[in-house]
Amino acid sequence: MTIDATHDPALTSWVESANGHRDFPVQNLPLGIFSAEGLERRAGVAIGDFVLDLPAIAEALGDAWLDELAQPVLNGFFALGAEPRRALRARLSELLSDPANRDRIESALIGQSEVTMHLPAIVGDYTDFYVGIHHATNVGRQFRPDNPLLPNYKYVPIGYHGRASSVRVSGKPVVRPSGQRKPPEAEVPVYGKSRRLDYELELGVWIGRGNQLGEPIPIGEAADSIAGYSLLNDWSARDLQAWEYQPLGPFLAKNFLTSVSPWVVTPEALAPFMTADFARPDGDPAPLDYLAGGSDKPGLGLTMEAFLTTAAMREQGVAPLRLSRGRAADAMYWTVEQIVTHHASNGCNLQPGDLIGTGTLSTAAADGLGSLLEISAGGKSPLTLPTGEQRSFLEDGDELTITARAEADGFVAIGLGECRGVVFG
Amino acid sequence: MTIDATHDPALTSWVESANGHRDFPVQNLPLGIFSAEGLERRAGVAIGDFVLDLPAIAEALGDAWLDELAQPVLNGFFALGAEPRRALRARLSELLSDPANRDRIESALIGQSEVTMHLPAIVGDYTDFYVGIHHATNVGRQFRPDNPLLPNYKYVPIGYHGRASSVRVSGKPVVRPSGQRKPPEAEVPVYGKSRRLDYELELGVWIGRGNQLGEPIPIGEAADSIAGYSLLNDWSARDLQAWEYQPLGPFLAKNFLTSVSPWVVTPEALAPFMTADFARPDGDPAPLDYLAGGSDKPGLGLTMEAFLTTAAMREQGVAPLRLSRGRAADAMYWTVEQIVTHHASNGCNLQPGDLIGTGTLSTAAADGLGSLLEISAGGKSPLTLPTGEQRSFLEDGDELTITARAEADGFVAIGLGECRGVVFG
Fold first, then answer.
1. ipTM above 0.85, yes or no
2. Domain boundary residue among A118, A136, A156?
3. Whole domain around residue B94: which residue ranges?
4. Which of A135, A223, A285, B256 is surrounded by the fewest CB atoms within 10 Å?
């Protein structure tokens, strides 16, 4: 991944809110789909507090403009692979940094508070992985104290298919699902509202150029299949999950809603923040040949955080409580490139706009746990909030927000925005 | 489900090959999407050895014609629910039985050998269930001899999400997938071609009118969500499955290909063949309230068969070997209505064109086993073929074909056509 002039830390934008912006300085330039009054769904770029309407600046984009950007979803643009994305980034960087362009495109800026964000792509298939080894260990320990990590974990990037139809963009209310749960002491299960509603802090990976059915993606080409990254919250009903998941895996415990943040942060934007290290300890089994190799720096140097705000906290003006903070690379046993290559290794076809979740990204640290199941030790150690409230799992009115930010010496930090949801009973 | 004049056993068609046809007499009238020389993908109806081009007879269909039938997929028509489907059936029955209509629509008939069939709908999500209790018991016994059926089985219609992108219409070559397998005696897994490739005899259910996210489908309304039925083969790599499936369920062992037969046989066509009995023994726990009720006759009186033809059998002119024969209702512990209601019971949204597999439909009889895993007892008891060949699992060159047929006293039998695939190495 090349680090080029678009990452120059001296670069500033004439969109003043971009300079020093937590998420969207001119070094980021993430893509998304928005609508606004009088504007149907269309492609845009986040810059500071604004969205830049791409079709409105088609002429200024010149050769970087493509008809695929005139669609109400980004699937077509994703399908084109990296080159057009790089060209668009380079041109946007020029347009938004050189004040000479201000008059030409300023009218295409719309305040983020005035737009509605949508899913960036039609999700053909959504797959959720389980590459957070500390999460897998923490959860495994609750079910199998003596043998938390199954024998396949260090060979197979474990994943399963999720539900595409219920993927929604950040902000969608989280309706507490009903389902079967079986209390340990009960003879038979009962059907009703979940009592153990949880979040899972994850990254979402958007597939760009995919593969044909029957044709694997070699590890050396996996990076070319990644169109970008969003935040992802795999809302989970733990009581439904515990009762239903054997032998075929999670189903209704997960498929009532999956939330993603609306902005797709490109591999180009993340280039300065990739790392060579990730959570595979020295001495562990080497990956099998088909999973070995790939980029020099496949690890994601993104610091992720989760915040909780209860209804009482909102009423009392108490600031959101940070539930966790940790670096994705410290959580992930398998890289995104390995995930992609493994997914296609049997010939399964990935398609532009497919969404892949990493799985819950917990670090080894006590303050780096990516779900309440882990934080409360399965409900045994409830969390005490600043209001005096306790939480083992999410209650109605709770708001859960995930963020991620990339920092590196000598570069301007960027962020993924946020993925949030409020629970309703 | 009403049995009306379209089921009159005295009804014959002026399309002579329809009369006495194994699958497609005038009492069936299944819908599909086909293309032919000079004809782009379009909706058609199978009648005898022919396909009736629906857009070509729009005028003759009169009020039964709808713009949704002019699409290259049936999702839009499925979304309309049962009423337009019934009206179309009634009108087609008239047109194809009364010889007075012959001159008017005969030119819209195309020989089935001259068309290419396609998936009837864009599959938004594909879910595979596990409602074949004898299959679940047979497979469970191989893993857990003392405890073959898990405690949740008689309460939860077990299902998991499959891969939508790799669903293909019957005839698609089955490319033997590669993947990780771990021989029992080996220290570490190896990556390579699957050695335990299997089929699974299933029914596919096409969703018609779906539900909004967050709004369950009551059992009394579940039948209205079913647009029709196809045959489904959930090709499975057993060696990959055994190594990867814990704890999140099957993934690469299944998602390299799922085959469905092209014709959608409607609930209306199956009305005379539905039964009150299915594979839930008296004395078993009653379904929880949300799964209780529904139609008086929710069981599928379809006799399903699987046939194997090896390359040597083809060369020697040996007839296909029937591997199994059994009635779906004798295999299914949960009805399709219960499947649909359970799937949406947490608010998960089903969409028109979604595909649901029943899971492998094995009966309790020795000749009613729906997979080679069961027939060969996990490879311990290979099958000897008429050629003297042995089979524990599928070999390259093997052709596997599934059929299903509905028969009932006083009615003309109908069939679902066939779902077939040849294995390539």
1. yes
2. A118
3. 5-118
4. A285
The distance between the two most distant Cα atoms of chain A, rounded to a whole number of Å, is 74
Closest CA to B261 of B228, B224, B222: B228
> B331 — contact with chain A (CB < 8 Å)?
no
How far the first Cα of chain B sits from its last, in Å, is 45
Shared-domain flag, residues B253 and B376: yes
Strand partners of residue B117: B34
What does chain A come to in residues?
A: 425
C-alpha angle with apex A331: A330 to A337, nearest 5 degrees?
Answer: 95
The mean predicted confidence, pLDDT, of chain B is 97
Residue ending a domain, among A89, A118, A147, is A118
d(CA A301, CA A303): 7
Q: Which of A125, A130, A248 comes nearest B130 by C-beta?
A: A248
Sequence-separated (6 or more) residues with CB below 8 Å from residue A319: A313
pLDDT in tens, B75-115: 999 999 999 999 999 999 999 999 999 999 999 999 999 99
Note whether B140 contacts A: Cβ–Cβ < 8 A: yes
Strands A258-260 and A226-233: antiparallel
- Answer whether A237 touches B (CB < 8 Å): yes
Residue B260: its pLDDT value, please? 98
The angle formed by the CA atoms of residues A182, A186 and A191, to the nearest 5 degrees, is 40
Quick one: average pLDDT of A259-287? 94
| CATH code for position A234 | 3.90.850.10
Put simply, whether A415 touches B (Cβ < 8 Å) is: no
Peptide bond into B157 cis (omega under 30): no
Chain A residues in contact with B162 by the CB 8 A cut-off are 161
CA distance B61 to A86: 53
* pLDDT given for residue B281 in this prediction: 87
Residues of chain B neighbouring A347 (CB-CB closer than 8 A): 175, 177-178, 256-257
Q: Residue B39, exposed/middle/buried by CB under 10 A (0-12, 13-18, 19+)?
A: middle
Specify whether A166 is located in the same domain as A147. yes
Question: By C-alpha distance, which of B79, B406, B377 is closest to B238?
Answer: B377
Dist CA A34 CA A52 (whole Å): 10
Q: Percentage of residues in chain A with pLDDT exceeding 90?
A: 96
Q: Is A50 helix (H, G, I), strand (E, B) or coil?
A: strand
Sign of CA dihedral A78, A82, A87, A89: positive
Search chain A and give the residue with CA nearest B189.
A155
Amino acid at A2: T
Asked if pLDDT for residue B376 goes beyond 90, the answer is: yes
pLDDT at A42: 98
Q: Give Cβ neighbours of residue B288 (< 8 Å, ≥ 6 apart).
A: A180, A189, A190, A191, B155
Q: Do residues B388 and B416 share a domain?
A: yes
